[in-house]
Amino acid sequence: VFSLNINESSGHYYQTARIAPISLNYFGFCMMKGNYNVKLHFAEIMFSNDRTFSSFGRRIFDVSIQGRKYLKDFNIMEEAGGVGKGITRDFNVDVNDSTLQIHLSWAGKGTNAVPMRGVYGPLISAI
């Protein structure tokens, strides 16, 4: 078991996260037709940067919204500049059929058993 200190200035969004080995799907139902700004919050909270075994993990995944791939080979640590740092990505999307779908999927890259099984794959802190 390992722990990671989160940068307190990152806020409460980044203290927990949903993760899955292969994919995460989120749906917004009963939405009015129109253009929406979707803000996704990420922070790498499962790996560390302290040169221990838990620092060897690499999380690489894709993000699709409404069936369109917006982020390919997304690596939270690289984009945020380290572990425990929050980062957001904003997307303008159209909803035409009353349903918004957000899909995060493992890109087939990165680690899948380091530092331990179950902490790899797509990760999201908040929507």
TrEMBL record:
InterPro entries listed in its UniProt record: Malectin_dom
Residue ranges of every copy of the Malectin domain listed in the record: 9-127
Gene3D superfamilies: Galactose-binding lectin
Pfam families: Malectin
Protein's name in the database: Malectin domain-containing protein
Naturally occurring in which organism (per UniProt): Pisum sativum (Garden pea)
